[in-house]
Here is the input.
Amino acid sequence: MERRCTLIVSDSPDRRYFIEYHLKNHAGRSVHYPNIMSARKAARLDSFALIVVDLSIPLREKLALVSDACIHQSDARIITIGKMEYLEKTGALAGFPSVESIDSIRSFPDKLAECSAQR
Here is the structure.
């Protein structure tokens, strides 16, 4: 898989299209998978420049994917969208300080621009 590829993990087609739309101008090609297990396998085996995880239900499986990505994608930027209050309260991602979290999908275009400027 090409290195500039972005993995999108979102159960909502509308939210996934929103993310894809903004990625087209900043991060090149994106890919998503039909289920969380396929996405976790890809996070373990393929190479991604960016991984965007929309933290909606099922949350536990998506946090496991983020954990896998942190272990297997050391060079990838990982952005989670939503559930910040839960993440802060539980410390679910405290062991992964490189993960960047935003509270709302509306903040994604700004976060993406910030990430692009830092390259």
In short: The first strand starts at residue 6 and ends at 9. The chain has a mean pLDDT of 87. DSSP finds five helices and five strands in the chain.
